[in-house]
Protein backbone atom coordinates (compact mmCIF):
# COMPACT_ATOMS: atom_id res chain seq x y z
CA UNK A 1 0.00 0.00 0.00
CA UNK A 2 1.03 3.65 0.23
CA UNK A 3 1.86 5.88 -2.74
CA UNK A 4 3.11 4.21 -5.93
CA UNK A 5 5.01 6.67 -8.14
CA UNK A 6 5.11 5.54 -11.79
CA UNK A 7 7.70 5.89 -13.16
CA UNK A 8 9.87 6.66 -10.12
CA UNK A 9 11.35 9.69 -11.81
CA UNK A 10 11.96 11.24 -15.22
CA UNK A 11 15.24 12.94 -16.13
CA UNK A 12 13.31 15.32 -18.44
CA UNK A 13 11.20 16.77 -15.60
CA UNK A 14 11.49 20.53 -15.02
CA UNK A 15 12.65 21.92 -11.64
CA UNK A 16 9.05 22.92 -10.88
CA UNK A 17 7.75 19.45 -11.68
CA UNK A 18 10.40 17.94 -9.43
CA UNK A 19 9.33 20.30 -6.67
CA UNK A 20 5.71 19.15 -7.03
CA UNK A 21 6.80 15.51 -7.14
CA UNK A 22 8.74 15.85 -3.89
CA UNK A 23 5.82 17.67 -2.27
CA UNK A 24 3.36 14.90 -3.13
CA UNK A 25 5.90 12.29 -2.05
CA UNK A 26 6.27 13.99 1.34
CA UNK A 27 2.48 14.36 1.79
CA UNK A 28 2.00 10.62 1.31
CA UNK A 29 5.09 9.56 3.26
CA UNK A 30 3.09 8.07 6.13
CA UNK A 31 -0.12 7.30 4.24
CA UNK A 32 -0.87 3.56 4.10
CA UNK A 33 -3.91 3.53 1.80
CA UNK A 34 -3.57 2.77 -1.91
CA UNK A 35 -2.58 5.72 -4.11
CA UNK A 36 -0.89 6.17 -7.49
CA UNK A 37 0.99 9.17 -8.89
CA UNK A 38 1.60 8.99 -12.64
CA UNK A 39 4.34 11.24 -14.04
CA UNK A 40 3.71 12.70 -17.51
CA UNK A 41 0.86 10.34 -18.45
CA UNK A 42 -1.35 10.79 -21.49
CA UNK A 43 -5.12 11.17 -21.89
CA UNK A 44 -5.45 10.45 -25.59
CA UNK A 45 -3.49 13.30 -27.27
CA UNK A 46 -3.29 15.39 -24.07
CA UNK A 47 -0.27 15.34 -21.75
CA UNK A 48 -0.85 16.52 -18.17
CA UNK A 49 2.17 16.59 -15.89
CA UNK A 50 0.73 14.34 -13.17
CA UNK A 51 -2.36 12.28 -12.38
CA UNK A 52 -2.92 11.36 -8.72
CA UNK A 53 -5.33 8.54 -7.82
CA UNK A 54 -6.25 8.26 -4.12
CA UNK A 55 -8.47 5.45 -2.86
CA UNK A 56 -10.14 7.80 -0.35
CA UNK A 57 -10.21 11.07 -2.32
CA UNK A 58 -10.69 10.32 -6.02
CA UNK A 59 -8.57 11.55 -8.93
CA UNK A 60 -6.79 14.87 -9.40
CA UNK A 61 -4.81 16.10 -12.41
CA UNK A 62 -1.86 18.52 -12.15
CA UNK A 63 -0.59 20.97 -14.74
CA UNK A 64 2.70 22.55 -13.57
CA UNK A 65 4.19 25.80 -14.90
CA UNK A 66 7.69 26.96 -13.88
CA UNK A 67 6.75 30.57 -14.69
CA UNK A 68 7.73 33.71 -12.83
CA UNK A 69 5.72 36.92 -13.27
CA UNK A 70 8.41 38.50 -15.50
CA UNK A 71 8.02 35.60 -17.96
CA UNK A 72 4.39 36.50 -18.69
CA UNK A 73 3.95 39.41 -21.15
CA UNK A 74 0.22 39.25 -21.73
CA UNK A 75 -2.59 36.91 -20.75
CA UNK A 76 -6.24 36.34 -21.52
CA UNK A 77 -8.58 33.48 -20.68
CA UNK A 78 -7.44 31.45 -23.71
CA UNK A 79 -3.84 32.37 -24.51
CA UNK A 80 -0.64 33.48 -22.76
CA UNK A 81 2.13 35.49 -24.49
CA UNK A 82 5.53 34.70 -22.95
CA UNK A 83 8.73 36.75 -22.77
CA UNK A 84 10.55 34.44 -25.19
CA UNK A 85 8.00 35.24 -27.92
CA UNK A 86 5.98 32.04 -27.61
CA UNK A 87 2.21 32.02 -27.38
CA UNK A 88 0.79 29.09 -25.40
CA UNK A 89 -2.59 27.95 -24.16
CA UNK A 90 -3.77 29.33 -20.85
CA UNK A 91 -2.87 26.47 -18.45
CA UNK A 92 -6.33 26.66 -16.89
CA UNK A 93 -7.90 26.05 -20.30
CA UNK A 94 -5.58 23.07 -20.68
CA UNK A 95 -6.40 21.77 -17.21
CA UNK A 96 -10.12 21.94 -17.96
CA UNK A 97 -9.52 20.10 -21.24
CA UNK A 98 -7.82 17.38 -19.19
CA UNK A 99 -10.84 17.30 -16.89
CA UNK A 100 -13.29 16.90 -19.78
CA UNK A 101 -11.16 14.28 -21.55
CA UNK A 102 -10.70 12.28 -18.34
CA UNK A 103 -14.44 12.36 -17.63
CA UNK A 104 -15.21 11.04 -21.10
CA UNK A 105 -12.58 8.35 -20.75
CA UNK A 106 -13.70 7.14 -17.32
CA UNK A 107 -17.35 7.04 -18.40
CA UNK A 108 -16.44 4.32 -20.88
CA UNK A 109 -16.33 1.82 -18.01
CA UNK A 110 -19.69 0.99 -16.39
CA UNK A 111 -18.05 0.09 -13.09
CA UNK A 112 -17.02 3.74 -12.66
CA UNK A 113 -20.57 5.16 -13.09
CA UNK A 114 -23.56 5.34 -10.77
CA UNK A 115 -27.22 4.86 -11.71
CA UNK A 116 -27.40 8.51 -12.89
CA UNK A 117 -24.54 7.85 -15.34
CA UNK A 118 -22.22 10.07 -13.29
CA UNK A 119 -18.75 9.16 -12.11
CA UNK A 120 -18.81 7.50 -8.70
CA UNK A 121 -15.67 9.35 -7.63
CA UNK A 122 -14.62 13.00 -7.60
CA UNK A 123 -12.40 14.30 -10.39
CA UNK A 124 -10.31 17.44 -9.80
CA UNK A 125 -7.72 19.53 -11.67
CA UNK A 126 -5.01 21.80 -10.30
CA UNK A 127 -2.70 24.27 -12.00
CA UNK A 128 0.46 24.67 -9.90
CA UNK A 129 2.92 27.58 -10.09
CA UNK A 130 5.96 26.60 -7.94
CA UNK A 131 7.66 30.02 -8.54
CA UNK A 132 4.70 32.43 -8.68
CA UNK A 133 3.36 33.90 -5.42
CA UNK A 134 -0.38 34.48 -4.91
CA UNK A 135 0.26 38.18 -4.13
CA UNK A 136 1.86 38.72 -7.55
CA UNK A 137 -0.96 36.86 -9.26
CA UNK A 138 -3.48 39.17 -7.59
CA UNK A 139 -1.52 42.40 -8.07
CA UNK A 140 -1.00 41.72 -11.79
CA UNK A 141 -4.67 40.90 -12.36
CA UNK A 142 -3.82 37.38 -13.50
CA UNK A 143 -6.37 36.03 -11.02
CA UNK A 144 -9.08 37.25 -13.42
CA UNK A 145 -7.84 35.05 -16.29
CA UNK A 146 -6.82 32.19 -13.99
CA UNK A 147 -10.24 31.89 -12.36
CA UNK A 148 -11.66 29.09 -14.53
CA UNK A 149 -13.35 26.35 -12.49
CA UNK A 150 -13.19 23.41 -12.09
CA UNK A 151 -9.41 23.94 -12.30
CA UNK A 152 -8.02 25.52 -9.13
CA UNK A 153 -4.83 27.53 -8.74
CA UNK A 154 -2.01 26.55 -6.36
CA UNK A 155 0.64 29.27 -6.13
CA UNK A 156 4.16 28.93 -4.69
CA UNK A 157 3.14 30.06 -1.19
CA UNK A 158 0.16 27.71 -1.20
CA UNK A 159 2.34 24.82 -2.43
CA UNK A 160 4.61 25.11 0.59
CA UNK A 161 1.69 24.54 2.98
CA UNK A 162 -0.74 22.51 0.87
CA UNK A 163 -2.11 19.27 2.28
CA UNK A 164 -3.83 16.27 0.70
CA UNK A 165 -7.29 17.66 1.52
CA UNK A 166 -6.61 20.81 -0.49
CA UNK A 167 -5.40 18.87 -3.52
CA UNK A 168 -8.86 17.29 -3.60
CA UNK A 169 -10.82 20.44 -2.61
CA UNK A 170 -11.45 19.04 0.89
CA UNK A 171 -13.71 16.31 -0.51
CA UNK A 172 -13.71 12.62 0.34
CA UNK A 173 -14.49 10.12 -2.39
CA UNK A 174 -13.87 6.42 -1.80
CA UNK A 175 -12.63 4.39 -4.77
CA UNK A 176 -12.84 0.60 -4.55
CA UNK A 177 -9.94 -1.63 -5.63
CA UNK A 178 -11.68 -2.82 -8.81
CA UNK A 179 -12.51 0.81 -9.67
CA UNK A 180 -8.84 1.80 -9.27
CA UNK A 181 -7.87 -1.03 -11.62
CA UNK A 182 -10.50 0.20 -14.11
CA UNK A 183 -9.12 3.77 -13.92
CA UNK A 184 -5.53 2.58 -14.38
CA UNK A 185 -6.33 0.32 -17.33
CA UNK A 186 -8.39 3.01 -19.05
CA UNK A 187 -5.45 5.41 -18.77
CA UNK A 188 -2.93 2.71 -19.70
CA UNK A 189 -4.54 -0.17 -21.66
CA UNK A 190 -1.13 -1.82 -21.99
CA UNK A 191 -1.13 -2.81 -18.29
CA UNK A 192 -4.15 -5.09 -18.70
CA UNK A 193 -3.16 -8.64 -17.93
CA UNK A 194 -6.29 -10.76 -18.03
CA UNK A 195 -7.09 -11.67 -21.61
CA UNK A 196 -10.54 -13.13 -22.25
CA UNK A 197 -9.72 -13.51 -25.93
CA UNK A 198 -7.02 -16.02 -25.10
CA UNK A 199 -8.63 -18.93 -23.32
CA UNK A 200 -5.28 -20.54 -22.57
CA UNK A 201 -4.34 -17.61 -20.33
CA UNK A 202 -4.54 -17.88 -16.57
CA UNK A 203 -8.08 -17.18 -15.39
CA UNK A 204 -8.18 -13.73 -13.80
CA UNK A 205 -5.04 -14.17 -11.69
CA UNK A 206 -4.34 -10.48 -12.10
CA UNK A 207 -6.33 -7.89 -14.01
CA UNK A 208 -3.59 -5.29 -14.25
CA UNK A 209 0.12 -5.15 -13.74
CA UNK A 210 0.82 -4.47 -10.10
CA UNK A 211 2.47 -1.13 -9.33
CA UNK A 212 5.98 -2.58 -9.25
CA UNK A 213 5.55 -4.26 -12.64
CA UNK A 214 4.01 -1.17 -14.20
CA UNK A 215 6.73 1.06 -12.78
CA UNK A 216 9.33 -1.37 -14.10
CA UNK A 217 7.86 -1.44 -17.63
CA UNK A 218 7.91 2.36 -17.81
CA UNK A 219 11.15 2.92 -15.92
CA UNK A 220 13.40 0.52 -17.84
CA UNK A 221 16.17 2.77 -19.15
CA UNK A 222 16.60 3.31 -22.85
CA UNK A 223 19.37 1.22 -24.34
CA UNK A 224 19.80 -2.54 -23.93
CA UNK A 225 18.21 -4.29 -20.94
CA UNK A 226 17.55 -7.86 -19.80
CA UNK A 227 14.80 -9.09 -17.49
CA UNK A 228 14.79 -12.63 -16.15
CA UNK A 229 12.36 -14.23 -13.75
CA UNK A 230 10.66 -17.28 -12.35
CA UNK A 231 7.98 -18.96 -14.49
CA UNK A 232 4.73 -16.99 -14.39
CA UNK A 233 6.39 -13.78 -13.21
CA UNK A 234 4.97 -11.77 -16.11
CA UNK A 235 8.05 -11.49 -18.33
CA UNK A 236 6.01 -11.62 -21.54
CA UNK A 237 3.42 -9.20 -20.18
CA UNK A 238 6.18 -6.77 -19.19
CA UNK A 239 7.79 -7.09 -22.61
CA UNK A 240 4.47 -6.28 -24.26
CA UNK A 241 3.81 -3.36 -21.91
CA UNK A 242 7.29 -2.07 -22.69
CA UNK A 243 6.67 -2.27 -26.45
CA UNK A 244 3.38 -0.38 -26.15
CA UNK A 245 4.98 2.19 -23.84
CA UNK A 246 7.68 2.86 -26.45
CA UNK A 247 5.25 3.47 -29.34
CA UNK A 248 3.07 5.55 -27.04
CA UNK A 249 6.02 7.77 -26.11
CA UNK A 250 7.43 7.74 -29.66
CA UNK A 251 4.54 7.43 -32.17
CA UNK A 252 6.94 7.38 -35.12
CA UNK A 253 9.01 4.44 -33.80
CA UNK A 254 9.00 0.99 -35.40
CA UNK A 255 9.18 -1.81 -32.83
CA UNK A 256 9.89 -5.49 -33.48
CA UNK A 257 8.97 -8.31 -31.07
CA UNK A 258 10.70 -11.64 -31.71
CA UNK A 259 9.89 -15.09 -30.31
CA UNK A 260 11.34 -18.55 -30.87
CA UNK A 261 8.15 -20.52 -31.41
CA UNK A 262 4.83 -19.80 -33.08
CA UNK A 263 2.69 -20.47 -30.01
CA UNK A 264 4.31 -17.57 -28.16
CA UNK A 265 4.05 -15.34 -31.24
CA UNK A 266 0.32 -16.15 -31.44
CA UNK A 267 -0.14 -15.43 -27.74
CA UNK A 268 1.44 -11.98 -28.08
CA UNK A 269 -0.57 -11.18 -31.22
CA UNK A 270 -3.80 -12.23 -29.47
CA UNK A 271 -2.95 -9.93 -26.59
CA UNK A 272 -2.27 -6.99 -28.90
CA UNK A 273 -5.53 -7.64 -30.75
CA UNK A 274 -7.47 -7.69 -27.48
CA UNK A 275 -6.06 -4.24 -26.63
CA UNK A 276 -6.45 -2.77 -30.12
CA UNK A 277 -9.68 -0.82 -29.54
CA UNK A 278 -8.52 0.69 -26.23
CA UNK A 279 -5.11 1.59 -27.64
CA UNK A 280 -6.63 3.15 -30.77
CA UNK A 281 -8.84 5.32 -28.55
CA UNK A 282 -5.67 6.48 -26.77
CA UNK A 283 -4.05 7.26 -30.16
CA UNK A 284 -1.45 4.51 -29.78
CA UNK A 285 -0.26 3.34 -33.20
CA UNK A 286 -0.40 -0.40 -32.72
CA UNK A 287 0.49 -0.97 -36.36
CA UNK A 288 4.03 0.13 -35.47
CA UNK A 289 4.54 -3.04 -33.42
CA UNK A 290 5.33 -6.12 -35.48
CA UNK A 291 5.51 -9.63 -34.00
CA UNK A 292 7.45 -12.42 -35.68
CA UNK A 293 9.25 -15.66 -34.99
CA UNK A 294 13.01 -15.33 -35.32
CA UNK A 295 13.24 -17.61 -38.35
CA UNK A 296 10.55 -15.67 -40.24
CA UNK A 297 12.40 -12.44 -39.38
CA UNK A 298 15.71 -13.91 -40.58
CA UNK A 299 14.11 -15.10 -43.83
CA UNK A 300 12.62 -11.67 -44.49
CA UNK A 301 15.93 -9.96 -43.70
CA UNK A 302 18.00 -12.32 -45.84
CA UNK A 303 15.43 -12.15 -48.67
CA UNK A 304 16.02 -15.75 -49.67
CA UNK A 305 13.80 -18.79 -50.16
CA UNK A 306 13.93 -21.91 -48.04
CA UNK A 307 15.93 -24.56 -49.94
CA UNK A 308 14.16 -27.82 -50.72
CA UNK A 309 16.73 -29.75 -48.71
CA UNK A 310 16.97 -27.65 -45.57
CA UNK A 311 18.58 -28.80 -42.35
CA UNK A 312 18.65 -27.66 -38.74
CA UNK A 313 22.11 -26.25 -39.46
CA UNK A 314 20.69 -24.19 -42.34
CA UNK A 315 17.96 -22.69 -40.14
CA UNK A 316 20.15 -22.08 -37.10
CA UNK A 317 23.50 -21.10 -38.64
CA UNK A 318 23.49 -20.51 -42.40
CA UNK A 319 20.28 -18.45 -42.59
CA UNK A 320 21.22 -16.11 -39.69
CA UNK A 321 24.68 -15.62 -41.24
CA UNK A 322 23.17 -14.41 -44.53
CA UNK A 323 20.64 -12.26 -42.64
CA UNK A 324 23.41 -10.56 -40.64
CA UNK A 325 25.26 -9.70 -43.86
CA UNK A 326 22.14 -8.10 -45.36
CA UNK A 327 20.59 -6.56 -42.24
CA UNK A 328 19.90 -2.82 -42.01
CA UNK A 329 19.19 -0.74 -38.91
CA UNK A 330 15.45 -0.83 -39.50
CA UNK A 331 13.88 -0.81 -36.03
CA UNK A 332 13.93 1.73 -33.22
CA UNK A 333 13.59 -1.09 -30.70
CA UNK A 334 13.80 -4.89 -30.80
CA UNK A 335 12.28 -6.93 -27.96
CA UNK A 336 13.11 -10.63 -27.65
CA UNK A 337 10.93 -13.03 -25.66
CA UNK A 338 12.57 -16.25 -24.38
CA UNK A 339 15.99 -14.84 -25.31
CA UNK A 340 17.70 -17.89 -23.77
CA UNK A 341 16.67 -19.96 -26.82
CA UNK A 342 18.38 -17.52 -29.22
CA UNK A 343 21.88 -18.45 -30.42
CA UNK A 344 24.63 -15.81 -30.41
CA UNK A 345 24.28 -15.04 -34.12
CA UNK A 346 20.55 -14.56 -33.65
CA UNK A 347 21.26 -11.90 -31.03
CA UNK A 348 23.83 -10.34 -33.39
CA UNK A 349 21.12 -10.02 -36.03
CA UNK A 350 18.86 -8.29 -33.48
CA UNK A 351 21.66 -5.88 -32.56
CA UNK A 352 22.39 -5.05 -36.20
CA UNK A 353 18.67 -4.46 -36.89
CA UNK A 354 18.43 -1.78 -34.17
CA UNK A 355 18.83 1.91 -34.88
CA UNK A 356 21.09 3.89 -32.57
CA UNK A 357 19.41 6.58 -30.49
CA UNK A 358 20.75 9.34 -28.30
CA UNK A 359 19.09 9.55 -24.89
CA UNK A 360 19.63 10.86 -21.36
CA UNK A 361 20.39 8.06 -18.90
CA UNK A 362 19.53 7.92 -15.21
CA UNK A 363 22.77 9.71 -14.38
CA UNK A 364 21.59 12.55 -16.67
CA UNK A 365 24.39 11.79 -19.12
CA UNK A 366 23.75 12.01 -22.86
CA UNK A 367 24.65 8.64 -24.37
CA UNK A 368 24.09 6.72 -27.60
CA UNK A 369 22.88 3.13 -27.77
CA UNK A 370 20.41 0.61 -29.18
CA UNK A 371 17.06 -0.31 -27.65
CA UNK A 372 17.34 -4.09 -27.25
CA UNK A 373 15.06 -5.59 -24.58
CA UNK A 374 15.56 -9.25 -23.64
CA UNK A 375 13.14 -11.28 -21.51
CA UNK A 376 13.52 -14.90 -20.51
CA UNK A 377 14.53 -17.59 -18.05
CA UNK A 378 17.90 -19.30 -18.50
CA UNK A 379 16.53 -22.45 -16.87
CA UNK A 380 14.02 -22.82 -19.72
CA UNK A 381 16.66 -22.95 -22.46
CA UNK A 382 15.54 -26.11 -24.27
CA UNK A 383 16.96 -25.16 -27.68
CA UNK A 384 20.23 -23.38 -26.86
CA UNK A 385 22.70 -25.27 -24.66
CA UNK A 386 25.31 -22.54 -24.21
CA UNK A 387 25.41 -19.30 -22.25
CA UNK A 388 25.56 -16.05 -24.17
CA UNK A 389 28.85 -14.21 -24.20
CA UNK A 390 27.47 -10.68 -23.97
CA UNK A 391 30.92 -9.14 -24.26
CA UNK A 392 31.56 -10.88 -27.60
CA UNK A 393 28.18 -9.59 -28.77
CA UNK A 394 29.23 -6.04 -27.96
CA UNK A 395 26.73 -5.74 -25.10
CA UNK A 396 27.71 -4.71 -21.58
CA UNK A 397 25.03 -6.18 -19.30
CA UNK A 398 26.55 -4.91 -16.05
CA UNK A 399 23.85 -3.08 -14.11
CA UNK A 400 21.35 -3.56 -16.94
CA UNK A 401 19.34 -6.57 -15.81
CA UNK A 402 16.65 -7.42 -13.27
CA UNK A 403 15.27 -10.62 -11.72
CA UNK A 404 11.49 -10.90 -11.22
CA UNK A 405 10.93 -12.87 -8.01
CA UNK A 406 7.13 -13.08 -7.86
CA UNK A 407 5.13 -15.71 -9.75
CA UNK A 408 1.53 -14.88 -10.62
CA UNK A 409 0.82 -18.21 -12.30
CA UNK A 410 2.78 -21.17 -10.97
CA UNK A 411 2.14 -22.01 -7.33
CA UNK A 412 4.91 -22.41 -4.76
CA UNK A 413 4.45 -26.20 -4.81
CA UNK A 414 4.97 -26.36 -8.58
CA UNK A 415 8.04 -24.10 -8.56
CA UNK A 416 9.54 -25.92 -5.57
CA UNK A 417 9.03 -29.30 -7.25
CA UNK A 418 10.47 -28.07 -10.56
CA UNK A 419 13.56 -26.37 -9.08
CA UNK A 420 14.40 -29.27 -6.77
CA UNK A 421 14.08 -31.62 -9.73
CA UNK A 422 16.59 -29.53 -11.70
CA UNK A 423 18.99 -29.31 -8.76
CA UNK A 424 19.44 -33.08 -8.69
CA UNK A 425 21.80 -32.60 -11.64
CA UNK A 426 25.04 -30.90 -10.55
CA UNK A 427 25.40 -28.48 -13.47
CA UNK A 428 21.74 -27.49 -13.24
CA UNK A 429 22.11 -26.94 -9.51
CA UNK A 430 24.86 -24.44 -10.32
CA UNK A 431 22.56 -22.75 -12.87
CA UNK A 432 19.69 -22.52 -10.36
CA UNK A 433 22.00 -20.99 -7.76
CA UNK A 434 23.48 -18.61 -10.36
CA UNK A 435 20.32 -17.37 -12.06
CA UNK A 436 17.79 -17.55 -9.21
CA UNK A 437 17.67 -16.34 -5.65
CA UNK A 438 16.92 -18.75 -2.76
CA UNK A 439 13.37 -20.20 -2.71
CA UNK A 440 12.72 -18.24 0.50
CA UNK A 441 13.14 -14.96 -1.43
CA UNK A 442 10.56 -15.87 -4.08
CA UNK A 443 6.93 -14.86 -3.62
CA UNK A 444 3.76 -16.34 -5.05
CA UNK A 445 0.31 -15.04 -5.82
CA UNK A 446 -0.82 -18.65 -5.59
CA UNK A 447 0.24 -20.43 -2.36
CA UNK A 448 -1.65 -23.62 -3.21
CA UNK A 449 -1.35 -26.93 -1.39
CA UNK A 450 -2.01 -30.35 -2.90
CA UNK A 451 -1.61 -28.97 -6.42
CA UNK A 452 0.12 -32.06 -7.83
CA UNK A 453 -1.36 -35.50 -8.57
CA UNK A 454 0.07 -38.61 -10.21
CA UNK A 455 -1.73 -40.83 -12.73
CA UNK A 456 -0.40 -44.33 -13.43
CA UNK A 457 -1.76 -46.32 -16.36
CA UNK A 458 -2.86 -45.92 -19.95
CA UNK A 459 -4.16 -42.94 -21.95
CA UNK A 460 -7.64 -44.17 -20.95
CA UNK A 461 -6.85 -43.04 -17.40
CA UNK A 462 -6.00 -39.55 -18.65
CA UNK A 463 -9.24 -39.52 -20.65
CA UNK A 464 -11.25 -40.49 -17.55
CA UNK A 465 -9.67 -37.68 -15.51
CA UNK A 466 -10.36 -35.12 -18.26
CA UNK A 467 -13.99 -36.29 -18.39
CA UNK A 468 -14.29 -35.94 -14.61
CA UNK A 469 -12.81 -32.43 -14.62
CA UNK A 470 -15.16 -31.19 -17.35
CA UNK A 471 -18.38 -33.08 -16.57
CA UNK A 472 -18.25 -33.20 -12.78
CA UNK A 473 -15.95 -30.44 -11.57
CA UNK A 474 -17.08 -27.67 -13.91
CA UNK A 475 -13.90 -26.98 -15.85
CA UNK A 476 -14.16 -25.88 -19.47
CA UNK A 477 -12.17 -27.65 -22.21
CA UNK A 478 -10.07 -24.49 -22.66
CA UNK A 479 -8.99 -24.75 -18.99
CA UNK A 480 -6.98 -27.87 -19.81
CA UNK A 481 -3.58 -28.27 -21.49
CA UNK A 482 -2.12 -31.72 -22.27
CA UNK A 483 1.60 -32.06 -23.06
CA UNK A 484 3.11 -35.05 -24.87
CA UNK A 485 6.59 -36.02 -26.04
CA UNK A 486 5.75 -36.45 -29.72
CA UNK A 487 3.05 -35.48 -32.18
CA UNK A 488 1.83 -39.06 -32.58
CA UNK A 489 1.24 -39.26 -28.82
CA UNK A 490 -0.93 -36.12 -29.04
CA UNK A 491 -3.07 -37.76 -31.71
CA UNK A 492 -3.38 -41.01 -29.73
CA UNK A 493 -4.61 -39.17 -26.64
CA UNK A 494 -7.11 -37.19 -28.70
CA UNK A 495 -8.59 -40.47 -29.99
CA UNK A 496 -9.05 -41.74 -26.42
CA UNK A 497 -11.03 -38.71 -25.22
CA UNK A 498 -14.82 -38.75 -24.86
CA UNK A 499 -16.47 -38.11 -28.25
CA UNK A 500 -18.31 -34.98 -27.06
CA UNK A 501 -15.18 -33.53 -25.49
CA UNK A 502 -13.19 -34.38 -28.61
CA UNK A 503 -15.20 -31.79 -30.54
CA UNK A 504 -13.53 -29.12 -28.39
CA UNK A 505 -9.96 -30.43 -28.76
CA UNK A 506 -7.14 -29.14 -30.95
CA UNK A 507 -3.81 -30.86 -31.52
CA UNK A 508 -1.78 -27.79 -32.39
CA UNK A 509 1.35 -25.73 -31.79
CA UNK A 510 -0.73 -22.56 -31.85
CA UNK A 511 -3.13 -21.15 -29.30
CA UNK A 512 -6.72 -21.84 -30.36
CA UNK A 513 -9.52 -20.09 -28.49
CA UNK A 514 -12.16 -22.14 -26.72
CA UNK A 515 -10.40 -25.49 -27.13
CA UNK A 516 -8.58 -28.02 -25.00
CA UNK A 517 -5.05 -27.95 -26.38
CA UNK A 518 -2.90 -31.04 -26.85
CA UNK A 519 0.66 -30.25 -27.88
CA UNK A 520 4.26 -31.28 -27.32
CA UNK A 521 6.47 -30.27 -24.42
CA UNK A 522 8.66 -28.35 -26.86
CA UNK A 523 5.69 -26.27 -28.04
CA UNK A 524 4.40 -25.47 -24.56
CA UNK A 525 6.34 -22.24 -24.05
CA UNK A 526 3.94 -19.34 -23.97
CA UNK A 527 1.05 -21.62 -23.03
CA UNK A 528 -0.59 -21.84 -19.63
CA UNK A 529 -3.79 -23.24 -18.18
CA UNK A 530 -5.38 -23.96 -14.81
CA UNK A 531 -5.07 -27.72 -15.42
CA UNK A 532 -2.00 -29.26 -17.06
CA UNK A 533 -1.30 -32.92 -17.82
CA UNK A 534 2.29 -34.09 -18.30
CA UNK A 535 2.07 -37.31 -20.30
CA UNK A 536 4.52 -40.25 -20.33
CA UNK A 537 7.03 -38.85 -17.85
CA UNK A 538 8.31 -42.43 -17.41
CA UNK A 539 9.73 -42.09 -20.94
CA UNK A 540 12.01 -39.32 -19.63
CA UNK A 541 15.04 -41.27 -18.43
CA UNK A 542 18.52 -40.35 -17.29
CA UNK A 543 20.84 -39.96 -20.26
CA UNK A 544 24.53 -40.85 -20.31
CA UNK A 545 25.38 -37.71 -22.25
CA UNK A 546 25.15 -34.83 -19.76
CA UNK A 547 23.92 -32.37 -22.38
CA UNK A 548 20.94 -34.57 -23.30
CA UNK A 549 20.13 -35.25 -19.65
CA UNK A 550 20.03 -31.51 -18.93
CA UNK A 551 17.82 -30.84 -21.95
CA UNK A 552 15.24 -33.44 -20.84
CA UNK A 553 15.17 -32.04 -17.31
CA UNK A 554 14.62 -28.52 -18.62
CA UNK A 555 11.86 -29.77 -20.90
CA UNK A 556 10.02 -31.23 -17.90
CA UNK A 557 10.74 -28.05 -15.93
CA UNK A 558 8.94 -26.02 -18.61
CA UNK A 559 5.97 -28.39 -18.48
CA UNK A 560 5.77 -28.40 -14.69
CA UNK A 561 5.45 -24.61 -14.58
CA UNK A 562 2.56 -24.20 -17.07
CA UNK A 563 -0.26 -24.79 -14.55
CA UNK A 564 -1.96 -22.19 -12.35
CA UNK A 565 -4.06 -24.69 -10.37
CA UNK A 566 -3.41 -28.41 -10.69
CA UNK A 567 -0.64 -30.45 -12.29
CA UNK A 568 -1.30 -34.07 -13.26
CA UNK A 569 1.85 -36.14 -13.89
CA UNK A 570 1.17 -39.31 -15.89
CA UNK A 571 3.30 -42.43 -16.36
CA UNK A 572 2.55 -45.83 -17.82
CA UNK A 573 4.37 -47.20 -14.78
CA UNK A 574 6.27 -45.63 -11.89
CA UNK A 575 8.04 -48.90 -11.07
CA UNK A 576 10.97 -48.58 -13.48
CA UNK A 577 13.70 -45.94 -13.01
CA UNK A 578 12.70 -42.71 -14.77
CA UNK A 579 12.26 -39.00 -14.13
CA UNK A 580 8.61 -39.82 -13.40
CA UNK A 581 9.69 -42.02 -10.52
CA UNK A 582 12.03 -39.27 -9.29
CA UNK A 583 9.20 -36.72 -9.28
CA UNK A 584 6.80 -39.01 -7.42
CA UNK A 585 9.46 -39.73 -4.81
CA UNK A 586 9.97 -35.97 -4.36
CA UNK A 587 6.30 -35.51 -3.45
CA UNK A 588 5.85 -38.63 -1.30
From TrEMBL:
GO annotation terms (biological process): recombinational repair
GO molecular function, one term: 3'-5' DNA helicase activity
Stretches assigned to the UvrD-like helicase C-terminal domain: 516-569
UniProt keyword Hydrolase, yes or no: yes
Domain NERD: from-to ranges: 15-129
Coiled-coil regions, chain positions: none
Alphabetical UniProt keywords: ATP-binding, Helicase, Hydrolase, Nucleotide-binding
Protein name: ATP-dependent DNA helicase
Lineage: Bacteria, Bacillati, Bacillota, Bacilli, Bacillales
